Amino acid sequence: MEKREANKKGALQPAPKVLVSCRGLDGEDNALVVGYCGNCSYAPPMVMVGIVPTRYSYQMIKESGCFVVNIASKDYQETFDYLGKISKRDSNKLKDINVKLEDGKVVNAPILADCPVNIECTVVDSIMTGSHEMFIGKVEYVHADSKLVGLDGSIDFTKIDFI
C-alpha cells in the first residue's frame, strides 16, 4: 500500500453529525451543527463539543454553562441542513422550520425532541484549541427513544440511521 501526505484539517473521520442546542440567559433558544464532538471521559461521563467563538450560540453556552448534544437521524436531514446553514443572527431559524423543542430535565437548555438521542450537559471546563473552543460537558441526563434502549439501559446505536 503506497502512502502520501494528506490534508491535516479534519483528518479524523468520520465525525459524528450532531446538533448542539442551548439557551441564553435571556431565555432565547438556539441550535447549531457541530462537527467537532466526542466522548472524553466515562467516569464521570463527559463529552466535548467544539464551537467557533464567532458562532451565535458560543456566548450563550459560555454564559449559561450548559448545552445539549442532539444526535440526528436521516429523517432529520432537512432540518439539520437548515440549522447548519442559517444563523440565528439572520432568522428565527427554530421557529421558521417548526423545530419541536422541549425543556431539558436537568439543564436549562432545550432538547430537539425529534432527535432520537439528547444528551444534557453542564460545562465543567473549556480549552481554546485554535479555531474552536472545546467545551467539556458533564453528562447530566440522556434522553433516548425507548425503542433504542436495551434492558440494561444502553443505547443500541445500530438502530439509528445516522446522517
Structure report:
The chain is 13% helix and 37% strand. With 163 residues, the protein is mostly beta strands. It has one domain: Pnp Oxidase, Chain A. Strands 2-1-5-8-9-4-3 form a seven-stranded antiparallel sheet. Strands 6-7 form a two-stranded antiparallel sheet. It is globular, with a radius of gyration of 16 Å.
Structural class of the secondary structure composition?
Answer: mainly beta
Enter the CATH topology name. Pnp Oxidase, Chain A
Question: SSE order, as H and E?
Answer: EEEEHEHHEEEE
Question: How many strand units?
Answer: 9
Distance between the termini: 31 Å
Strand content: 35-45%
The share of residues in helices is: 10-25%
CATH top level class name: Mainly Beta
**CATH 4th-level superfamily:** Electron Transport, Fmn-binding Protein, Chain A
Number of DSSP helical runs: 3
Whole-number count of domains: 1
Uncertain spans, ≥5 residues at pLDDT below 50? Answer: none
Please tell me the overall pLDDT: 94
Radius of gyration: 16 Å
Strand order of the largest sheet: 2-1-5-8-9-4-3
Question: Briefly, what is this?
Answer:
This protein is mainly β. 13% of the residues lie in helices and 37% in strands. It has one domain (18-159): Pnp Oxidase, Chain A (Roll).
List keywords for this structure.
mainly beta, 7-stranded antiparallel β-sheet, two-stranded antiparallel sheet
